[in-house]
Amino acid sequence: MVEFPNLFSPIRVNRIELKNRIVMTATHLGYNAPGGDVSDRLVGFYEERAKGGIGLIIVGGCPVDDHVSMRNMMRIDDDRYVAGLKRLTCTVKTAGAKIAAQIYQAGRYVHSSMIGGRTPFSASEVPSALTGETPRALELEEISLVQEKFAEAALRAKKAGFDAVEIHAAAGYLISQFLSPVTNKREDRYGGPIENRIRFGLEVVDRTRKAVGPDYPIVVRLSGHEFMNRGNGGREAKRFAKALEEAGCDLLNVTVGWHESRVPQLTTFVPRGCFVYAAQRIKSSVSIPVLACNRINDPPLAEAILQRGSADMIAMTRAVIADPDFPNKALGGKKNKIYHCVACNQGCFDNIFKSKPVACLVNPRVGVEGETRIVPSGNPKKIIIIGGGPAGMKAACTAAERGHKVFLVEKSDRLGGQLLLNRNIPGREEMATVV
Ligand SMILES: Cc1cc2nc3c(=O)[nH]c(=O)nc-3n(C[C@H](O)[C@H](O)[C@H](O)COP(=O)(O)O)c2cc1C
User: Fold this and answer.
1) pLDDT 10s digits, 94-136
2) Residue of 220, 259, 264, 256 whose CA lies nearest to 240
3) Measuring CA to CA, which residue among 2, 49, 138, 84 is closest to residue 325?
4) Pocket around ligand 1 at a 6 A CB cut-off
5) Which has the closest alpha carbon to 422: 342, 347, 306, 336?
6) Where are the domains of the chain?
């Protein structure tokens, strides 16, 4: 009897069937080659997650044009990237997971220094708190050219063997900039009432559908609430979701907030599962599947969300960075062996905003999977490890996993070292669960 029957039941999204409901949503890793090509490091990272039993991996974000907003992003804006992307999709599919590509245009979230001094564009000339710069407004006749870039990128994703494509319409990127009254001050048919503000995104979906054909899954990531002063809330999100369903979208990935929002969305202070309400609200207005996101790091919580019908699929993204094997562990009755993400963000989110590659406080193998495979030792030994802080404990676990007999020696009466200090800081108690 499977302990998490909802989590491990299959689900169909257009022509593809996913073996379970666990999704790794798009994560910019900073592992691509400087030119944007797929690297061995990237393939090694995703292969390990696919082998760990996850249903769907969404990779990216991949800019649809040369407006790259961060260093070492995954590129899909030219046919020359297709061969490398094929290597990635083949590896992940062979390892048993489905794989989708997230495509996006960052609009006013691109800094001019990233695009050779050109001025980034947006719906209107509204300064960006993220870059400190003011974009130019897209001319009416430029709009269809930008939309076409999404369709071209989606077709490239299909050619590269991705099982699906995800259009990023959240987080404050270009499609959100058209959707939101905060950044859309236009007076043409793309501005003004919500019917007009959703037009840009819907036309992107429409063009994409025409490019990829009727049976290719299209996912859209949207914000269930922008958390922006005078921005869109739940009502507008529902309106957009309904229109996306009518436009032929197959799955809605409901996140919250923008990069400029003051509401914390990812930190350890954010209660687990607290944004599921946003997915649930969307689910009540559409009949296509809905994916719930943010701070869901434990199979029992994911199972409960599915069981009560709040969502159809669950994003457990940093959870599989921390422990790539957690789906197989949960399926195999070993949930107590899961290393949980504690949402510290120190190695992942903080790193990428410092232009560094993603690492993980919980999992030292992140980003070096290929070089650090844990294989049984041909020569098991007795090993003494002095010091039961996080490093000593992890070394002890790894040595034991390799078949050595380990003695872990700690002078105080508790294991955990300085990590235990977190137990005394209100809101950070979860950090100590690593111990
Ligand atoms: C290092 C890092 C990079 C991310 N990059 C993207 C991205 O490129 N596109 C996107 O839509 N979300 C991105 N996200 C957000 C994740 O997809 C996900 O929504 C977030 O981590 C919350 O889910 P979790 O609590 O399950 O990790 C990123 C998150 C992290 C930690």
Assistant:
1) 999 999 999 999 999 999 999 999 999 999 999 999 999 999 9
2) 220
3) 49
4) 25-28, 60-61, 102, 168, 171, 221, 255, 266, 293-296, 315-319, 348-349, 352, 358
5) 342
6) 11-371, 382-434
In the structure encoding, which two tokens stand for residue 318, read together? Answer: 């940093």
| pLDDT recorded at residue 340 | 95
| pLDDT band (50, 70, 90) for residue 84 | very high
Measure the CA–CA gap between 406 and 415, rounded to whole angstroms.
15
- Residue 332: asked if its preceding bond is cis (omega within 30°), the reply is no
CATH of domain 11-371: 3.20.20.70
Using the predicted structure, report yes or no on whether residue 403 has a pLDDT greater than 90.
Answer: yes
CA 155 vs CA 163, 175, 210, 213, 256: distances in Å: 11, 19, 10, 9, 28
The answer for residues whose C-beta is within 8 angstroms of residue 116's C-beta and 6 or more apart is: none
Quote the mean pLDDT of the chain.
Answer: 96
pLDDT bracket for residue 14 (50, 70, 90): very high
What 8-state DSSP symbol labels residue 219? E
Q: How remote is the CA of residue 386 from the centroid of ligand 1, in Å? A: 36
Closest ligand 1 atom, residue 104 Cα = 9
Looking at residue 166, the DSSP 8-state letter turns out to be: E
Compute how many other C-beta atoms are within 10 angstroms of the C-beta atom of residue 263. 13
Q: How confident is the model at residue 2 (pLDDT cuts 50, 70, 90)?
A: confident
Spatial contact of 311 and 277, defined as CB atoms under 8 Å apart: no
Distance 26 CA to ligand 1 centre (A): 6
Q: How far apart are CA 168 and CA 7, in angstroms?
A: 25
| Cβ contacts of 11 within 8 Å, gap of 6 or more | 17, 18, 21, 55, 289, 312, 313
Could you read off the pLDDT of 337-390 as tens digits, one per residue? 999 999 999 999 999 999 999 999 999 999 999 999 999 999 999 999 999 999
> Are 119 and 135 spatial neighbours (Cβ–Cβ below 8 Å)?
yes
